[in-house]
Structure to design on (199 residues):
């Protein structure tokens, strides 16, 4: 079965804030008639990148673990929804492990002036959406996360199509906020429609 849009949950907590928003966004995508699948990074065996540069020469990673499942899903996908909670003002450790292992997809091109271009080895453009949550800080908390996820989406040949950033979950959890759940669903629908219109 072809999976059109994958959802990746970078939180260790199921049915909590990040997971609920990713799930609701995927429900919105599914409402447009596309196929979706969700992955919990915390349930997967993903080893840290060893920066051995094997992927630079071979185009694949020598580590054999559950990232191979995610590689396959990414490569067939037309869209990606990545959700992460905020740990110490940044993405979760689970999300960082995943992102580092996507290094295999970046194409590094040296320019004549000595600078570098970073493009993707992945064929086929896809759309990317970020979901970020934080317990008690303001929206500035997401600045570093956005920068890192922009780099990831570039390497995955994904347009940074949308984002949903929710603050203050310590005071108003996602499950108690129907407005944010509705917004996540709406954004999922919009993402799914954009993908369908591009087919």
């Amino acid at each position: 079965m072809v999976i059109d849009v994958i959802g990746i949950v970078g939180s260790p907590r199921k049915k909590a804030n990040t997971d609920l928003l990713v799930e609701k966004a995927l429900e919105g995508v599914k409402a447009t008639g596309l196929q979706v699948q969700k992955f919990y990074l915390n349930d997967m065996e993903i080893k840290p990148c060893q920066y051995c540069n094997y992927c630079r020469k071979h185009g694949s990673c020598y580590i054999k673990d559950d990232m191979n499942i995610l590689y396959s899903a990414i490569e067939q996908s037309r869209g990606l929804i990545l959700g992460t909670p905020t740990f110490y003002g940044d993405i979760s450790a689970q999300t960082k492990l995943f992102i580092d292992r996507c290094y295999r997809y970046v194409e590094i091109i040296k320019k004549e002036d000595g600078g570098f271009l970073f493009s993707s080895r992945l064929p086929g453009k896809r759309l990317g959406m970020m979901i970020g949550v934080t317990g008690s800080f303001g929206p500035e908390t997401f600045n570093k996360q956005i920068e890192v996820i922009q780099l990831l989406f570039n390497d995955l040949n994904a347009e940074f199509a949308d984002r949903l950033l929710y603050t203050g979950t310590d005071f108003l959890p996602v499950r108690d906020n129907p407005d944010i759940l509705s917004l996540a669903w709406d954004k999922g629908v919009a993402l799914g429609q954009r993908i369908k219109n591009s087919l």
